[in-house]
Amino acid sequence: MLSEINYLLFNSVLAVSFVASAVYLVFFFSQKEKLRTVARMILLVSGILQTLYILSRYLIAGYTPITSQHEAVTFFAWSVTWAYLSFHWRYSVRNFGTFVSVLAFIMLLIAASASREFEPLAPALQSLWLPVHAGVSVMAYGFLALAFCGGIMYLLQERELKSKKFGFFFTRLPSLDALDQLNSHCLTAGFTLLTLGIITGSIWARQAWGTYWHWDPKETWSLITWFLYAIQLHQRVTVGWRGKKAALMSIVAFCSVLFTLWGVTFLLGGVHSYAQ
Predict the structure, then answer these.
(1) Cβ-based burial of 50 (10 A; exposed 0-12, middle 13-18, buried ≥19)
(2) 274 shares its domain with 154
(3) What is the domain count for the chain?
(4) Ordered alpha helix ranges (H), the chain
C-alpha cells in the first residue's frame, strides 16, 4: 500500500511542479499579477508533496532516502523549492520564481529518469550522521542553486543595460543591485550550510573509517567547491567583488556543485558513489 502511495506521490510531484513552472513562465511573458500568486501557491503545493514523498520513502525504507541517484536529486529539488519559498518570505525579487521553478522541475525530471527501487543500505551508511551530513549538504546546494539562478538573471539584465535597448528582459528582471544582494544572501546561507556539511562529513568519516579525510573523489571535489565559494566570499568582503564577477563566479561554482553531485559519481566513483 505504501509503495503504491509512494509511486503516486512522485507522479503528483512531477505533474504539479510542471504546472507551477508553466504558470510561472506564462506570468513571465504576460506579467499578469494574478498568475504570479497562482504560480506561487502551486509551487507551495509542490513543496508539500515533495516533503510527503520523501517521508513516504523514509517510512518504506526505514532510513533517510538520500542514498540513490533518484533520492539525491529529488532531495536536491526539494531543497531548491523550500530554499526559494523561505527566501521569498523575507525578500521579494521580481520573477525569481520563474527561474527557480524551472530549475526544480528539470531536477525532478532527472530524478524521474533514475531507478526508484529501494536498495539495501550499505553498512557504512547505517549511521545517524547520514541525515545530518547528507541533509545539510544538499540543503546547502539548494541555496547555492538560488545564487546560480540569480547569477543567470544578473547576466541577462546586464546585457540588456549594456545594449541600451531595454528590451524583453529589462522590464521583467530586477535591478542589478537587487540581484547582487540576492546573490550575497543566498551565497552566505549556502556557504554556511556547505561548511557544516563538510565538518559533519569529516566527523562521520572518522567514526566510519578511522580518518577525518582520505581524499575520496567526492570529498576532493566537495573541497574544491568549498574553496570556489570561499574565494567568492573573501573577494566580496575584502575587495568589494560584486556585480558581474560575483554572478559569473556563482555560475562557475554551481557547475562544480553539479559535478560533485553527478560527475564524480558516474566518472570517478569512490566510496560516496551511488552510480552502481
Answers:
(1) buried
(2) yes
(3) 2
(4) 2-30, 33-61, 69-88, 96-113, 129-163, 176-209, 217-239, 243-258
pLDDT in tens, 214-254: 777 778 888 899 999 999 888 887 877 778 888 899 999 99
Kindly list the distances between the CA atom of residue 2 and the CA atoms of 6, 11, 256, in Å, as whole numbers in the listed order.
6, 14, 36
- Considering only CA atoms, which of 215, 254, 249 is closest in space to residue 233? 249
Query: What digits encode the pLDDT tens for the residues 76-96?
Result: 999 999 999 988 777 778 889
Q: Please, is 250 exposed, middle or buried when counting C-beta atoms within 10 Å of its C-beta (0-12, 13-18, 19+)? A: buried
111 and 130 inside one domain = no
Residues 186 and 271 in one domain: yes
Question: Which of 87, 119, 151 delimits the end of a domain?
Answer: 119
Residues 27 and 139 in one domain: no
Select from 93, 119, 145 the last residue of a domain: 119
The widest CA-to-CA distance across the chain, in whole angstroms, is 61
pLDDT at site 269: 52
Average pLDDT value over all residues in the chain: 86
Q: What is the pLDDT of residue 75?
A: 93
Domain that holds residue 209: 122-276
Q: For residues 57 and 42, give the distance between their C-alpha atoms in angstroms, rounded to a whole number.
A: 23
Nearest to 228, CA basis, from 260, 196, 200 = 260
Of 168 and 141, more confident: 141
Mark whether 78 and 34 lie in a shared domain: yes
pTM: 0.89
pLDDT of residue 275: 41
